[in-house]
Design goal:
The protein is an alpha+beta fold. It is about 35% helix and about 25% strand. A hairpin with a 6-residue loop joins β2 and β3. The mean pLDDT is about 90.
């Protein structure tokens, strides 16, 4: 299977504390969302943040990996509901990601469910990317 690349962009105006930006989900065309420092470091106030976007990606990826692992083991889930909570501390960065999953899987013990969830947590591509991934950069100063 060929790889895919998904793209998002951000336009920012002003400094960190009083500036504002918009993140656009380019690949899907789903929408453009406002971002600013207070929405990241204080209350969301109807705006998103990098950490919320990471949480969305992580919870989605985790559920895909988990459902695939369960199905391959012969115990496909009826449902999986996962929340990813990404903690950001100003001046420090992202300090924790807490995944919480509730699932309905017929015929599976709690211990087997926990083990399968741990495997999905360790091996979903977003978990892997958050461990360490090469990041390339191209920087151009406009005139």
């Amino acid at each position: 299977m060929a790889g895919t690349t998904r793209t998002a962009s951000n336009h920012w105006e002003g400094d960190l504390m009083s500036g504002t930006g918009q993140v656009t989900l380019e690949s899907s065309g789903v929408g453009t969302f406002d971002v600013n420092w207070p929405s990241r470091a204080e209350q969301a106030n109807g705006k998103t943040s990098p950490e919320e976007l990471i949480a969305a990606a992580h919870s989605s990826c985790f559920n895909m990996a988990f459902s695939n692992g369960l199905a391959k083991a012969g115990t496909p889930p009826t449902s999986l509901d996962t929340t990813a909570a990404v903690t950001f501390v100003p001046g420090t960065g992202i300090t924790e990601i807490a995944l919480k999953v509730v699932g309905s899987v017929a015929g599976m013990s709690a211990d087997d469910f926990q083990a399968a969830a741990e495997d999905a947590k360790e091996n979903c591509p977003v978990s892997q990317a958050l461990k360490s991934v090469p990041i390339s950069l191209e920087a151009t100063l406009s005139e």
